[in-house]
Specification:
Rossmann fold, 9 strands, binds NADP nicotinamide-adenine-dinucleotide phosphate, 10 helices, seven-stranded parallel β-sheet, two-stranded parallel sheet, 285 residues, alpha/beta, 2 domains
Length: 285
């Protein structure tokens, strides 16, 4: 197995490693020679990922926990640091989506989304940061979303949690400039994962279906490789995905226009936009 080795000798801690982008990040980092700590709730799924990734010939430790249990997270940081004696890169990737109207979403569900997507990563970051600052090196990678830049219907607290990540990490970046610790914020577009199947509904249930758009979206393995390239290059903020990335430019030029464009059926509209820019025949869906 070929190893480029740009992460050889480094320890990378990946949350949300049991599926989707996180699982592919495990492969992408291992291919670069990194020793891994992989986290999510499901020990069984993590063990499966570990089996697959071991083929790259790196060390992999499983550290399962629930990000929603904020009180337990400082201990998890201590455990993570004890595994190899340090963490060079923390990839805060774990997250949960929300699929419901504001009026149908219970406050406890809003809070759950904020705990998993915002306060969880914040707790891990606060735990690991003193160690990175003391050593004068380290990287914090944060997986945000296009929803961290603008809102579309039925994802209210998800968008809020991703917007919050930008506020927090941009502030932190300004506080630790010249410390040797770098922050990379990743903005994935629409990536081929089962995120919508795992999404919460407003009453706390499970949405349970993989959205059609996500079935034909940007491949997760390609996204993972780009994410690794981005943090290796110490880029500050990078979009990863397909032609839906054009919405970031439109939002910068005219937020007014983007708001009107995505107001109704945003996913359908984004799909049409993708077809337009890739000169494909419209799917008619
Ligand atoms: N797919 C996309 O189009 C897209 C677009 C923009 C941003 N993103 C972001 O990319 C990240 C990864 O998403 P994905 O698409 O790969 O979705 P995914 O396949 O559903 O992966 C989510 C990961 O987060 C973990 N997780 C969920 N709740 C958790 C909790 N309470 N505690 C600990 N871990 C938890 C899951 O593992 P367990 O269930 O085992 O805990 C899983 O490993 C998320 O932050 C998401 O917001 C994805």
């Amino acid at each position: 197995m070929k190893q480029d080795g740009k992460l050889r000798g480094k320890v990378v801690w990946i949350t949300g490693a049991s599926s989707g982008i996180g699982e592919q990040l495990c492969h992408a980092c291992a291919r670069e020679g990194a020793d891994l700590i992989i986290s999510a709730r499901s020990k069984t799924k993590l063990a499966g990922v570990r089996e697959q990734v071991l083929v790259h010939g790196v060390r992999i430790a499983v550290l399962a926990f629930d990000l929603e249990k904020l009180d337990t997270l400082p201990n998890k940081v201590t455990e993570a640091l004890a595994i190899y004696g340090r963490v060079d890169v923390l990839i805060n990737n774990a997250g949960i989506a929300l699929k419901d109207w504001v009026t149908a979403t219970k406050l406890e569900v809003d809070r759950k989304v904020m705990d998993i997507n915002y306060f969880g990563p914040l707790c891990l970051t606060k735990g690991i940061l003193p160690h990175m600052l003391e050593r004068g090196s380290g990287q914090l990678v944060v997986i945000s979303s296009l929803s961290g830049k603008y809102g579309v219907p039925k994802i209210s607290s998800y968008a809020a949690s991703k917007h919050a990540l930008h506020g927090f990490y941009e502030t932190l970046r300004s506080e630790i400039v010249n410390s040797g610790v770098f922050i990379t914020i990743i903005i994935p577009g629409i990536i081929q994962t089962e995120i919508t199947a795992h999404a919460l509904t407003g009453d706390g249930g499970n949405f349970g279906k993989v959205d059609k758009t996500f079935q034909r979206a940007y491949p997760a393995d390609k996204a993972a490789r780009k994410i690794v390239r981005a943090f290796l290059a110490k880029q500050e903020e990078v979009f990863v995905g397909g032609t839906e990335g054009i919405t970031l430019l439109i939002n910068r030029i005219s937020p007014w226009f983007l708001r009107r464009f995505i107001r109704n059926h945003p996913i359908k509209r984004l799909r049409k936009l993708k077809e337009f820019f890739s000169f494909k025949k419209p799917s008619g869906a």
